[in-house]
Amino acid sequence: MVDSDKSKKTNSTEQNQQRVQRALAPFEDSLIEQLPTAEQIIHRALARQKQKQQHKHLLLLAGLGSVLGVLWLNPSYDQKVFSTRIGEQKQFELTDGSRIQLNTQTQLIVTTHLRSSEFKLLQGEASFTVKHTAWHSVAPWLKRSFVVWAKDVKIEDIGTVFNVRCEPNGTDLQISVSEGQVRISSAQQNIDLYQGQSLYRQHDQWFKPSHANIAQLTSWQTGSYQFMDQPLVEVIDELNRYGNLSVEFRDHHVEQLRITGEVKLKHRKQFMQDLEKFAPVKVTAQDQGGFMIASRP
């Protein structure tokens, strides 16, 4: 009985298919024309495959463009402020091994970017010893750039050790190179400064680079101040950077007296007491703690 029912259903299905075929027969040619050929099917498949590949390439290019964009923007991700008080000196080491030494009453902002390190010397004096990568001499374009801003002047490290000093008046500054080379850029000039050279700007006027006594200019790093054939008033002004000595001069002549020597910065008052031993002056200690300097009779 079950087999008979299945046979009936099969016959009914075949009859329905035959009726559909007879109904579609007049439209067979038109329907065939609407169907794609084998060549068209293959062409469309290849086109879809190519489109997918192009989409992957576009995503890859977009990702690469994003990376290059970030590198070009060079965003910062860390900032620190280093400072010293009057008479204080400090040394800091950066994560890349570079060292910074600050002189008295100095303020420095250190900003670390993705592919550069930037330093803004707001006031005072700082020495920079730059640690270069092993491939620095072979592929210098791969190194993290090291840039110091002093007022409106950009100082870019190319060598190793250099010193920058900003005077309190806001315009004067001095740059000296102990080792290697730096590149200096400002609105007035662009110049490279080499080992043993110093460059000075006074009242927005640049002097020519000159060979300098770098040991003398950077003697503060070892806790001393060296002076050679300098007016006494300039020596006292320099010592006052580390704490006011309250010095008064009796006359202009003694101010311009030229002296040579070396002072330990921690013993500045002792220097004032010993000044009479190597200069033709009379030093009198004042009741309020300062000093009066006059020409020796």
UniProtKB/TrEMBL annotation:
InterPro entries: FecR (IPR006860), Ferrdict_sens_TM (IPR012373). It holds the Pfam family FecR. Keywords: Membrane, Transmembrane, Transmembrane helix. This is DUF4974 domain-containing protein. Residues 82-183 form the FecR protein domain. Residues 1-20 are annotated as: Disordered. It comes from the Bacteria. Residues 10-20 have a biased composition (Polar residues). One of its GO terms (molecular function) is sigma factor antagonist activity.
